[in-house]
Amino acid sequence: MVAGGANVVCFTTDVARRSGAAVPSLKLSTNTPLFLRMGDDMDLNCGTIVDGEVSVEEMGRRIFHALVATASGFEDQK
Predict the structure, then answer these.
(1) Which of 4, 17, 28, 32 has a CA 20 to 30 Å removed from the CA of 53?
(2) How large is the average pLDDT for residues 49-75?
(3) SS3 state of residue 71
């Protein structure tokens, strides 16, 4: 994606992997246990969907707003 011109990347993971992206990236945890364990390395906990805390639509809004903030140069999205 970066080679194709992407300026921001959303990286989903269910294990603690680093993306290694050469552009700003949002790391999206797919489950809450991972987010709790690796919260310092994750930007958003998408596991709250499975936990029944937020809807897919609401999480989509959160991801979108974090993506816009990241693209605008704001660092802390938590």
Answers:
(1) 17
(2) 92
(3) helix
Residues spanned by the domain of 50 = 31-78
Q: Which residues contact 44 (CB under 8 A, 6 or more apart)?
A: 26, 27, 28, 29, 59, 62, 63, 66, 77, 78
Nearest to 72 by CA among 26, 18, 38, 3: 26
Q: How many of the other CB atoms lie within 10 Å of CB of 57?
A: 8
Strand order in the sheet with 25-29: 9-13, 25-29, 44-45
- Number of helices (H), then strands (E), in the chain: 3, 3
Domain annotation covers residue 77: yes
On the question of pLDDT at 55 being above 60, the answer is yes
User: What's the residue count for the chain?
Assistant: 78
As for how many domains the chain has, the answer is 1
| pTM, 2 dp | 0.78
